[in-house]
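Give me the fold.
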Amino acid sequence: MTGSLTERYEDRIAGVLSCYDRVVVTGTLPTVCYAAGMTKFLYAIGVRIFDYPQFASTLRDRVRERAAYPLAAQAGITIEHIAKSHIRKEAVVAEVLKRRGEHPGLVHVISAMEACGAYQPWHDKQTQKTFVRPDSGKCLHYYFYFIDAELGLVYLRVPTPAFAGAGYGHRSACNSTATVTAGWRVD
């Protein structure tokens, strides 16, 4: 077999559509997305480096209490936690769409623990400096799926600050991702 896929099956193909199936938009808070920037920010607002976990837990709770739960409650849906990595979020949303229909509005909210960048408070005994340093961990992410009248199915991924043991913080809260599945239905 030689030739492209469209050449091989040209007798069965009525036409070819070329377009993007999704657009990914990532937002960042550039001043706190790296360890030195977060250290500078914490000093500027008067938060001691080793108090960072308590500071970040307040942010995590605010996302949960002011965004995730009120939005879900207003739409009459419950947040579904997915604890297993083999479960595809898109398949879960497809089932919800079958029941709900494809009218605009919030479709579903999913929470999942996923890998994320983190910060670890640290004191360097040689330099006598205290700062946060990069680390890795797991944090709770919320996925807000909704249908926009023009864009179709869209989701916004919001990571929340998390901790791995005592003294760990989170740096991926500075990154949120919105994925727009333009003109495509999840089947």
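Strands lie at 23-28, 80-81, 105-124, 129-148, 152-159, 175-182.
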